[in-house]
Amino acid sequence: MTGKFYNNFKTATLLGLLTALIMWIGHLLGGPQGLYVAFVVAAITNFVALFFSDRIAIATMRGQQVGPGNELYDIVAQLAARASLPMPRVYVSPHPAPNAFATGRSPRSAAVCATAGLLEMLSRDEVAGVMAHELAHVKHRDTLIQTVAATIGGAISMLGYMFMFGGGGSRDGEGEGAHPLAALLVLLLGPLAAGLIQAAISRSREFNADLAGAEMLGNPMPLATALEKIHLKSRRIPLAVNPAFNNLFIIEPLNPMRSLANMFSTHPPLEQRLQNLIGRETTGMLRYAA
């Protein structure tokens, strides 16, 4: 109960901070009128994120739903039953980059998705390890905050565009719109600020999902080897996805601006995740040719 309360408290805190960030940006760019616009944007964004974020994420990855008889579906069904979770919807994305994610506002509306590249590269046990990690996110209700945070990050950029190209409201009531440079600054820095807030929480959630997934599977090694394989292969194959969705994936997708992306990374380093899973003394045993 304590852990669930703490998780819900962190979720509410993050949503409050991101919503306040949108409203502050609106006031900065458009004064009182901008504050009202930002409030409407925040309300619509939270509604869309709450009820449609899973569909947006799946559509972004061009996921195709699969059913009984599909190997991935059968693996997820076994793990969901073991974890006492409702059966999520299962999707396969055609992307060659190996990765996977979970989405949905609650366990009853959850969905999991794996790329074709991941399914081709990993053994059945390793795929089960990855899916156990994703179902742990579902069980901890991480999927709601991950998709909402991504959607709100996009809303911040939308606000910048509105005030830069629409003129915005007046800070003094005399009709003078927001300065275009201020709006441009919001377009650049707003999503980064949202990312920093989100990353502060999502990193700890990755550690927790790794451990819970290993416990669900009964063995940490399949997930540990899968993480290293995905990490090595994903450094070669980019995944063309909006950076706002990076936090959804089991391994952060390849970003061409890698040095800048590392400053705002939503995932802990691979070495730390392996040590968290199997201990420092055995981490060095995992080595695969790049």
Topology (SSEs and partners):
Elements: H1 2-60, E1 64-66, H2 71-82, E2 89-93, E3 100-103, E4 111-115, H3 116-121, H4 124-139, H5 142-166, H6 180-217, H7 221-234, H8 258-263, H9 270-278, H10 280-283
Parallel strand pairs: 2-4
Antiparallel strand pairs: 1-2, 3-4
Helix pairs in contact: 1-5, 1-6, 2-4, 4-6, 4-7, 5-6, 7-9
What characteristics describe this protein?
single chain, 290 residues, mainly alpha, four-stranded mixed β-sheet, 10 helices, 65% helix, 6% strand, elongated
Structure characterization notes:
The longest helix is centred in the first third of the chain and has 59 residues, at 2-60. This protein starts with a helix and ends in a 7-residue tail after the last helix. Helix 5 packs antiparallel against helix 6 (180-217). It has ten helices and four strands; from the N terminus they run αβαβββαααααααα. The chain is mainly alpha-helical and 290 residues long. A hairpin with a 7-residue loop joins strand 3 (100-103) and strand 4. The chain has one domain (2-283).
Number of domains: 1
Percentage of residues assigned to helices: 55-70%
* SSE order, one letter for each helix or strand: HEHEEEHHHHHHHH
Count of beta strands: 4
Mean pLDDT: 77
Q: Tally the helices: what do you get?
A: 10
Q: Can you summarize the main beta sheet?
A: 4 strands, mixed
Shape: elongated
Cα distance spanning the termini: 43 Å
> What percent of residues are in strands?
5-15%
Query: Which structural category do the helix and sheet elements fall into?
Result: mainly alpha
Low-confidence stretches: 169-176, 257-264
Give the spatial strand order of the biggest sheet: 1-2-4-3
Q: Evaluate the radius of gyration.
A: 20 Å
